Amino acid sequence: MLKPNSIIQADVIDGLRSLPDGTFQLIIADPPYGNVLVDHAWDTDLDADSYLAWTAAWFRAALVKLRPNGLIYVFGQLGQREHRWIEVTALLCRSGAFHDQLIWDRVVGYNDRRDSYTPAYEICLVLKKSADAQPYFNKDAVRIPYDKCTIDRYLKDKRYKDMDARRAHLETGKFATNLLRVPSLKGSSREKVGHPSQKPERLIEMLISSSSKKDDWVLDPFFGSGTTGVVGQRLGRKWVGIERDSDYCEMARARLRRLNSEY
């Protein structure tokens, strides 16, 4: 029996093998990018060829856990050292079927290069199980509100005859694009718990809200500090996280205990 809202402490492939096939509506994967966080052994312990072979293995193991109408989001990054993401993209699109590619605009760049523009984004490849799959997606769940000044300005446009309908449309907000502008977490952020590659809750919230429904199963095979679990639980999803590092498992459990104490 699959236990909802649980952390499996295991290597990613072993953890995935323990889960039932065709269960998860949504998989959010934020794997080690490979030689990016050079101070952390878990991101530097594989050469390029071994990293690609490992990526292919965990992705194939994850894909069979996805429901036929589900989506899998895989984060990655380009930059001075991380050109292997281009190879990862091609590799994943041969195993799964390409659906979309999102750009996470971190808003503030990170000072990683001296010979080119300052990097300020990461990439999220979106894949489905097969080319003919029809994945669930709720665009209304990720509308972006117009600010009051914009709404007031549009309502002054005399071309619109039905102002009540126009106001309702404006107050509903505009559809989000595949450029997700969400500020990255800084050291002073209330969300920050000590993980070096922790994603903002708002970013993960957009993926979970748009690509799953209440009570759906959501899987994070690189659970880290537990952001997927925190957001998934808040949104009424059943989640499972896989994480091999005991310190990160405890970090995630501490966040979840704080979340549960709020209710």
Automatic annotation (TrEMBL):
Q: Which GO terms describe its cellular component?
A: cytoplasm
Ranges for domain DNA methylase N-4/N-6 come to 25-252
**Pfam families from the UniProt entry:** N6_N4_Mtase (PF01555)
Database matches in InterPro entries? DNA_methylase_N4/N6 (IPR002941), DNA_methylase_N6_adenine_CS (IPR002052), RM_Methyltransferase (IPR001091), SAM-dependent_MTases_sf (IPR029063)
Cited Gene3D superfamilies: Vaccinia Virus protein VP39 (3.40.50.150)
GO process annotations (BP): methylation
EC number from the UniProt entry: 2.1.1.-
Any one GO molecular function term: N-methyltransferase activity
Task: Provide this UniProt record's keywords sorted from A to Z.
Answer: Methyltransferase, Transferase
- This protein's source sits in the domain of life called Bacteria
Keyword Transferase listed? The answer is: yes
Q: Looking at the keywords, is Transferase present?
A: yes
**Which family does the entry's similarity section mention?**
Belongs to the N(4)/N(6)-methyltransferase family.
Q: What is this protein called?
A: Methyltransferase
**Source organism (scientific name):** Synoicihabitans lomoniglobus
List the top taxonomic levels of the source: Bacteria, Pseudomonadati, Verrucomicrobiota, Opitutia, Opitutales
